[in-house]
Write a structure and sequence with these properties.
Elements: H1 2-16, H2 32-41, H3 47-50, E1 62-65, E2 69-73, E3 79-82, H4 84-94, H5 101-104, E4 106-107, E5 115-116, E6 121-129, H6 131-137, H7 143-160, E7 168-175, E8 180-189, E9 192-197, H8 200-203, H9 207-210, E10 222-228, E11 245-246, E12 255-256, E13 265-270, H10 281-310, H11 314-343, H12 346-361, H13 370-395, H14 399-406, H15 408-415, H16 421-441, H17 444-461, H18 471-479, H19 485-498, H20 504-512, H21 516-521, H22 523-538, H23 540-564, H24 566-569, E14 581-586, E15 590-593, E16 596-598, E17 601-603, H25 604-610, H26 622-629, E18 645-650, E19 662-664, E20 670-677, E21 695-699, H27 700-710, H28 714-717, E22 722-723
Parallel strand pairs: 12-22
Antiparallel strand pairs: 1-2, 1-6, 2-3, 3-10, 4-9, 5-9, 6-8, 7-8, 9-10, 10-11, 13-14, 13-19, 15-16, 17-18, 18-21, 19-20, 20-21
Helix pairs in contact: 1-12, 4-11, 10-11, 10-12, 10-13, 10-17, 13-17, 13-22, 13-23, 14-16, 14-22, 15-16, 16-20, 17-19
C-alpha cells in the first residue's frame, strides 16, 4: 500500500510540477513560491511593481492589441510596440499599389503623418474571483444543462460588471477547466494609429521557410500609438477623433540597450491565447490521428492556390497577403505539433498517468467512472470528427462558399411561414453589405481552384454515408467521373461563372425582390447549402453533445487531480485563455540534437548570409545591405560581438496570443519582442518540453536600428527612455 501511494505521488509530481520555466502565471495569483523562484533567477522588481490593483504597476503597460495579439506601451505619449504580423492587416489596409507601406515600410515624422486604423486596444483594469457565485448557481447540474446554465450566469456577470458608457468590458474566464472563474475587466480604446513599420522584407524576413525555426533573422515589429479624448477618456467606436491626444499611460516600459548574456533573466507578459496542457489521452489521439492531419492537408491546398496567384500580380499579393500569412502560420504549427506529440509519445505518457488516477479514484463516486464515460463520448464523436474539419477548414476555407453559407439566414427568412416581407428585405440588405466586403477581399482564380480541390477531397476523405444526399450523384451525371480532377474543375468554373454573387445585375435584381427559388437555384448557394445544411442538421448536435461531455469530464478530472495532491496543486498554473499572464525564464542557447548547438543570438552576419536578392522570402532593402556591410550600427551595436544582434531565444513558456509580447529584463526594461516558438517544441499547446522549448524574440536593438538607421525615424527614438 505504501508503495502504491509513492507511485501515485511521483506520477502527480510529473504532471503538476512546473519543470524548468514552464508556466503561464496569473499576475493576480503570483504566489510567493513562484515569485521567490523569479527572484532566484535574477528579478529585482517587487511583487507590487509587477501587479498592483490600486497603484500603477508593470501590468498597466501590457495591452491586448487588436483581436489576438499583445502590445506594450513604451513612452509617456502612448507609443505601442508589437509584432509586424500583428499590425500586418492594418498596414496592408493602409497600403495601395502607389503607396505600398507593406512593401516599402513607413515611419511618421510627426503626429500629423500617423495613419488612422480600425484597430482597438484594451487595458486590464482589474481581476475579480467570481468562482463562488458561479458554482453556487450550478449545484446539482451536469452535462449540457450545466453548460447552458453556466453560459447564462457568465453572461449576466459580464453585463453587470461592464459599462458601455466608459468602454469598460468584462469577460469571465473559466480556468483549470472550469474549476475557477475569474472576471477580467478591461477598458477599450478605439483611436489607434500606425506610426511605423519596416518593409515586409524585414518584418517577414524568412517567410514560411523560417517560420517556427531557429536561427531566425526576422525584424518582426511595428509601431502604433493610442489616443484619447482631451480629458483622457477613450473615444467611442466611430466617434470623431479630431482633437484627440496621445494617451498618458499609468506605466510604460523603458528600453534597454544593454548587451544580453547567455543565462540572463527574462520574463514575458502578455495574452497567450490557448493551451490544453491537462488534455486527456483521448484528446491527444484525436488530434494526432484526425484533426491535425486533416487541417494541415486542407490548408496546404489553400496555400498552394493562393500562392500561385500571388506570384503573378503585386496587387493580388497585397490583397491576399494577410490571409495567406495567417493560414500558413498554423499550417506549419499543427504539422510540427503532430510530429512532436508522436515523437515523445505524449499519448503514452497521458495514458500511464490516467491509469494511476483511475487506481486512486476507485471507490470515489465522483471520479471512479470518469474515463469510462469519457471514452464513450470520444467513441461516439470520432466517426464525425473529420467531417467537421472539412466544414471548418475546407468548405469554409473558400471565400465564395463561406459567403454563400452566410445567406442561409436569408433563406430562412424567405421560407419562414407568415414572415413579413420586411424581414426578408432586411436580411437581403444585410447580405448586400456583406457582399460588398466579400468582393473586395476575394480572389476568384485561387478560390475557384480551392472549391474544385476541396469538393473532390471531401468525396474521397469523408465516408460516403455522411455525404450530402444526392450531391455527388448529380455532379457525376452532369460533369463526369468523380475520380477525375477535370470533373471538379468544370463544376467549379460553372459555379463561378453563373452565380449571381459575382453578377452585379442579377444580384441587384435579387436584392430588390428577394425570393427563395432564385436563391436556392444559385449554384454557389446550392453547393454551400448542401454541405452546411447536411452538417448542421445531422452532426452539429452530436458535436455539441460531445463538447458538453468533454468539458464536464475534463473539469472533474482536473478537480480530482488537485485532490490527489493538494500541496502540489498550489503550484499548478491554469491553461492559457487569452488572459494576462507572466512567464519567466532565461536567455539560453540549446542543443536540439546530437552534435548541433544553437547560440542564443543571431546577428547581421547571419542575416547577410541568408540574403537572396529578389527572393520572395529572403530579399532585403538595398539601403539595409549597404548599412550592414559598412557596419553602421551606431549605439545599437553589441559591444562583445561588434555586430548588430537581430534576434535571441529564451526558455519562456508562451503560445499564440503572446505575439508582440514584451520580453523584459530583471529591472523591468524592454529587451525584445516575442514572436515565435521553435519547431523542436511545437507540442507546447498540449505538452511543454522542458529541454527544447524556446521563445524566439526580435532584439530591441535591432528594432531601434531599423527605426533609426534604416527608416530615419529619429523622432520615435527620441520619445523612448533608453537605458544604457
Amino acid at each position: 500500500m505504501k508503495k502504491f501511494f509513492l507511485t501515485v505521488f511521483l506520477a502527480i509530481g510529473l504532471l503538476l510540477k512546473s519543470f524548468a520555466d514552464e508556466g503561464m502565471w496569473l499576475p493576480l495569483l503570483l504566489g510567493q513560491q513562484v515569485y521567490d523562484q523569479m527572484k532566484k533567477k535574477g528579478l529585482v522588481l517587487t511583487k507590487e511593481q509587477l501587479y498592483n490593483i490600486n497603484q500603477p504597476s508593470l501590468k498597466d503597460a501590457i495591452i491586448i492589441f487588436g483581436g489576438g495579439c499583445t502590445g506594450e506601451i513604451v513612452s509617456t505619449q502612448g507609443l505601442i510596440f508589437t509584432n509586424h504580423h500583428c499590425g500586418y492587416d492594418a498596414i496592408a489596409s493602409a497600403s495601395t499599389v502607389e503607396k505600398n507601406y507593406l512593401r516599402d515600410g513607413f515611419y511618421a515624422r510627426n503626429r500629423g503623418e500617423e495613419i488612422p486604423t480600425s484597430l482597438s486596444v484594451q487595458f486590464l483594469l482589474r481581476i475579480e474571483d467570481v468562482t463562488k457565485e458561479v458554482m453556487d448557481s450550478l449545484k446539482g447540474l451536469s452535462g449540457a444543462e450545466r453548460v447552458q446554465r453556466q453560459n447564462r450566469v457568465l453572461a449576466a456577470i459580464n453585463k453587470r460588471m461592464s459599462d458601455e458608457t466608459k468602454n469598460i468590458e468584462t469577460r469571465v474566464s473559466a480556468l483549470f477547466k472550469g474549476n475557477q472563474l475569474l472576471a477580467f475587466v478591461y477598458q477599450r480604446y478605439y483611436d489607434v494609429r500606425l506610426v511605423g513599420t519596416p518593409p515586409e522584407s524585414v518584418g517577414k524576413f524568412g517567410g514560411d521557410t523560417d517560420n517556427w525555426e531557429w536561427p531566425r533573422h526576422t525584424g518582426d515589429f511595428s509601431v502604433f500609438r493610442v489616443h484619447t479624448k482631451p480629458d483622457g477618456s477613450p473615444a467611442k467606436k466611430d466617434e470623431s477623433t479630431e482633437g484627440n491626444i496621445p494617451l498618458k499611460p499609468k506605466w510604460y516600459l523603458p528600453v534597454s540597450l544593454r548587451p544580453l548574456k547567455d543565462g540572463d533573466f527574462a520574463m514575458i507578459w502578455g495574452y497567450p491565447g490557448g493551451t490544453n496542457r491537462y488534455e486527456s489521452s483521448y484528446g491527444i489521439k484525436l488530434a494526432t490521428d484526425i484533426n491535425n492531419p486533416t487541417l494541415v492537408k486542407l490548408r496546404d491546398v489553400r496555400l498552394k492556390f493562393m500562392f500561385e496567384e500571388m506570384k503573378k500580380d503585386p496587387a493580388v499579393r497585397l490583397k491576399l497577403a494577410s490571409d495567406y500569412a495567417g493560414i500558413a502560420n498554423y499550417w506549419k504549427f499543427y504539422d510540427g505539433e503532430t510530429k512532436q506529440l508522436l515523437k515523445y509519445d505524449v499519448y503514452g505518457q497521458k495514458k500511464s498517468f490516467e491509469e494511476k488516477f483511475m487506481a486512486w479514484a476507485k471507490g470515489k463516486a465522483e471520479y471512479q467512472n470518469i474515463f469510462i464515460d469519457w471514452g464513450k463520448a470520444y467513441d461516439a464523436w470520432r466517426p464525425y470528427a473529420k467531417h467537421r474539419m472539412y466544414i471548418n477548414e475546407g468548405l469554409a476555407g473558400s471565400s465564395l462558399l463561406s459567403f454563400a453559407a452566410s445567406m442561409l439566414q436569408l433563406e430562412a427568412a424567405l421560407v419562414k411561414p407568415g414572415a413579413p416581407l420586411s424581414e426578408a428585405k432586411k436580411a437581403a440588405e444585410a447580405a448586400d453589405k456583406q457582399r460588398t466586403a466579400f468582393l473586395e477581399e476575394v480572389n476568384k482564380p485561387s478560390d475557384q481552384n480551392i472549391v474544385a480541390a476541396v469538393t473532390r477531397m471531401f468525396y474521397e476523405d469523408v465516408v460516403k454515408e455522411q455525404h450530402p444526399l444526392g450531391f455527388y450523384g448529380g455532379l457525376k451525371d452532369k460533369y463526369g467521373p468523380l475520380d477525375d480532377d477535370a470533373t471538379y474543375k468544370k463544376y467549379a468554373a460553372d459555379m463561378f461563372k453563373n452565380t449571381m454573387i459575382f453578377d452585379d445585375a442579377k444580384w441587384k435584381a435579387f436584392v430588390a425582390n428577394p425570393d427563395a427559388n432564385t436563391l436556392q437555384d444559385d449554384p454557389a448557394f446550392a453547393h454551400a447549402s448542401a454541405f452546411f445544411t447536411n452538417y448542421t442538421s445531422k452532426y452539429a448536435t452530436l458535436y455539441q453533445q460531445f463538447t458538453a461531455k468533454n468539458l464536464e469530464m475534463g473539469r472533474l478530472y482536473l478537480k480530482g487531480i488537485m485532490e490527489m495532491a493538494p500541496v502540489k496543486a498550489k503550484m499548478m498554473y491554469p491553461d492559457a485563455t487569452f488572459t494576462m499572464r507572466v512567464s519567466y525564464g532565461n536567455v539560453k542557447s540549446y542543443q536540439p540534437r546530437d552534435a548541433v548547438r544553437y547560440d542564443y543570438v543571431t546577428t547581421s552576419r547571419g542575416l547577410l548570409e541568408k540574403y537572396k536578392p529578389g527572393d520572395y522570402e529572403f530579399d532585403l532593402p538595398a539601403n539595409q545591405i549597404e548599412l550592414l556591410k559598412k557596419k553602421d550600427f551606431g549605439q545599437y551595436m553589441d559591444p562583445a560581438r561588434k555586430d548588430l544582434v537581430i534576434g535571441f531565444i529564451t526558455t519562456n513558456d508562451i503560445t499564440g496570443g503572446n505575439s508582440g509580447s514584451p520580453v523584459i529584463n530583471n529591472r523591468g526594461e524592454l529587451i525584445g519582442l516575442a514572436f515565435d516558438g521553435n519547431y523542436e517544441a511545437l507540442s507546447h499547446k498540449l505538452a511543454f518540453d522542458k529541454d527544447l522549448n524556446r521563445t524566439i524574440c526580435v532584439d530591441i536593438r535591432y528594432v531601434l536600428w531599423c527605426i533609426d538607421k534604416l527608416g530615419g525615424g529619429a523622432n520615435i527614438i527620441n520619445e523612448l527612455k533608453l537605458m544604457k
